[in-house]
Each structure stands twice: as structure tokens, then as C-alpha cells.
Design a protein that fits this description.
By secondary structure, the chain is of the alpha+beta class. It has helices at about 30-40, 65-80, 85-90, and strands at about 1-5, 5-15, 20-25, 45, 55-60.
């Protein structure tokens, strides 16, 4: 898991409960999960447990756009980090 300020913002999975996926699950802004899944259901999915809270699953075992993954992780971190830490990301 990846955490900031003691709170989880992302996690890596490898064949989670036999789902056959290597993936990243990350916190996402309201509505982003649906947008990503609708746009590319081969790469994005609703993960178990955290999916109902809006998190998105990003497959890492298919073609990966690493800039997109970075953007999702940075966004998840910003949503989770204490306010005083957020400006440090831009430093």
C-alpha cells in the first residue's frame, strides 16, 4: 500500500484473490472511475472493496501509459495528503 499522513491513497495488487490482474488501485475524484472505465474497460476497472468509494483499478499487465498512471497517483496523493504537505509536491 502507498500512504501519506497515515492514510492509504493507492495499492499494488498481483493476482488479487486469483483475478489474474497485475494492477494499481488508487483513490480518484468523484466521477473519474466511471469516466476511465467507460473510456477504456480493458485498462480500467472497479476494484473490490474500495471501488464503491470511487477508487479505480489500473491494469499494469496490458499496455501502460505511465504518464497517465503518474497523474492518477499524484491526484490520489493530493486528495489524501494533509493540506500542509500538498505544496511540497510542487517544490
Amino acid at each position: 500500500t502507498f500512504r501519506v499522513g497515515g492514510k492509504m491513497f493507492a495499492m499494488f495488487t498481483d493476482d488479487h484473490h486469483g483475478d489474474g490482474r497485475v494492477a494499481l488501485w488508487c483513490k480518484a475524484p468523484l466521477g473519474m472511475q466511471e469516466i476511465l472505465i467507460d473510456a477504456d474497460p480493458e485498462r480500467f476497472y472497479k476494484p473490490p472493496y474500495v471501488g464503491p468509494s470511487g477508487w479505480v483499478g489500473v491494469r499494469l499487465d496490458v499496455a501502460v501509459d505511465w504518464r497517465e498512471v503518474r497523474g492518477l497517483l499524484v491526484g490520489a496523493w493530493r486528495m489524501t495528503a494533509p493540506r500542509k504537505l500538498v505544496p511540497l509536491l510542487d517544490a
